[in-house]
Amino acid sequence: MNLSATHQEQLNNFWQYCLEHQYFNIGYPESADFDYSHLFKFLKFSLNNCGDWREPSNYALNSFDFERDVLNYFSELFHIDSEDSWGYVTNGGTEGNMFGCYIARELFPNSTLYYSKETHYSVAKIVKLLRMKSCLIETTATGEIDIDDLTTKIKLNQEKQPIIFANIGTTMSGAIDNIDEIQIRLKQIGIDRNDFYLHADAALSGMILPFVSSPQPFSFADGIDSISVSGHKMIGSPIPCGIVVARRKDVERISVDIDYISAKDQTISGSRNGHSVLMMWAAIQSKSASDWRHSIEHCLSLAQYAVERLQAENIPAWRNPNSVTVVFPRPSENVWRKFHLAISGNKAHLITMPHNKDTKKLDQLIDAIILDQTTLPQCSTYV
Ligand SMILES: Cc1ncc(COP(=O)(O)O)c(C=O)c1O
C-alpha cells in the first residue's frame, strides 16, 4: 500500500498515541491484556462468516471451523448442550442483545419486553428498531431489577407471555438480576415456563460468573433462553465483538435459506467478521479454566482493595457480589475527565480489568478521589 509521507506520519503519530494510552482504561470494562500477534498474517485475507457456521457456505474464505469451537466452548460455559444451542460471534454485546430480543419477539409477537432502569442504553434502541412494546421496571438501591415492580406491572398489563430482559451485571454497578426469583414469581402469578422468554445480558459478567466459586444464577441450566457477552470486555480484543448463544429450536424459527450465499441466514448482520472469530478462538485456546479463574480472582481482589481504600477515607464506595465494578460518588469533572471515568447521575465507577497487573493505576485514581472528596455530594446519604 502506497502512503504519502504525510499520511505515514499521521499513522506514526497515532501509533505513538496508542502506545501511550494502551493501558489508560480504568473507567470502562475493556481489557487490554491480549496479544493476537500470531494472527496478524490473516489480515491478508478477506474472511467473511456470512451464514450459519454449522453448514458449508459458498463463500470459501470463512473461519467457520473456529467459530464452531468458540460456540462449543461458550455452550459448555453457559450450561447448554452444544447440540441444543446455536449462537455466533457478533459485533458486540448490543448485537447479541438484539438477537435475543428478535428471537423473543418472533416467539411472542404481541408481548411486552420488561427491562430495568439500570439496563444498558442500547436496549431502548433495540426495542424501537424491533418495534416491540416495552415496560421500564424500577431497581433496588444496588441496581437489581425490582421484582415486586416487575410482577405488579406484568399483572397490570395482563401480560400472558412476557419477555424479560435480565441484566447479568448492569453497566453502572455490575448488579445481577435474580433470575431464580423472577421465575418463581412468574409461576406464582400463573405464567408457565413455556410462556415467557428470558434473555440474559451478560456483557461483562458472562465471562466472570463461570469462573467464581459462588456464582449467581446466570445460565441455561438456571432458566435463561439466550445470553449475550461482549468479547472486547473481559476476554479482550482489538476489535469490538461478542458471543451470543440461544436455544437452537428458537433460532430455527428465524432462520431463512438464502440461495445467493447457499446458506442459512439467521444472524443480525449478513457479512460477519471472520477475524474476530479467530481472536475469540485464540483467547479461549490460550487460557485454561484455571487461568481464567486466576485472572478473575485477581480483578475481584483489586476491586475489593479499591472499595476498602476508599471506605477507609469515609468515601462510601461499594460493589456488588462477584463484580469488578466499584461504585462511588461522582467526583469533580477534573477527576472524571482525567481518568476517563464513566459517570451516571451522582455516581461514578471504576472497573478492574486483567491489564491492571498491580494497584499502581488504581492508587493514582484513588489518591485523586480522596484529594477531591471535599467536593463530593452528600456521602452519608449515598447508597
Ligand atoms: C450491561 C451491558 N450490556 C450491553 C452493553 C453493550 O455492549 P457492546 O458495547 O459490546 O455492544 C454494555 C456495554 O457497556 C453493557 O455494559
Q: What's a quick, concise take on this entry?
A:
The chain contains eleven helices and twelve strands. The protein is an alpha/beta fold and 383 residues long. The chain has helices at residues 5-21, 64-77, 93-107, 122-129, 147-156, 179-188, 248-252, 274-286, 289-312, 333-338, 360-372; strands at 85-90, 112-116, 133-137, 163-167, 197-201, 226-230, 242-247, 256-258, 263-265, 325-329, 342-344, 347-351.
Report on this model:
This protein is α/β, with parallel strands linked by helices. The protein has two domains: 41-286, Type I PLP-dependent aspartate aminotransferase-like (Major domain) (Aspartate Aminotransferase, domain 2), CATH 3.40.640.10; 289-381, Alpha-Beta Complex (Aspartate Aminotransferase, domain 1), CATH 3.90.1150. The protein is 35% helix and 15% strand. It is built from eleven helices and twelve strands. The protein has a seven-stranded mixed sheet with strand order 1-7-6-5-4-2-3, with helices on both faces. Strands 10-12-11 form a three-stranded antiparallel sheet, covered by helices on one side. The longest helix has 24 residues, at 289-312. The model is unreliable at 378-383 (pLDDT under 50). The structure holds pyridoxal-5'-phosphate (PLP). Pyridoxal-5'-phosphate binds at residues 92-94, 97, 120, 122, 167, 169-171, 201, 203-204, 230, 240, 242.
Attribute tags:
12 strands, 383 residues, three-stranded antiparallel beta sheet, Aspartate Aminotransferase, domain 1, binds pyridoxal-5'-phosphate, seven-stranded mixed beta sheet, histidine decarboxylase activity, Aspartate Aminotransferase, domain 2, PyrdxlP-dep_de-COase, 2 domains, globular, PyrdxlP-dep_Trfase, alpha/beta
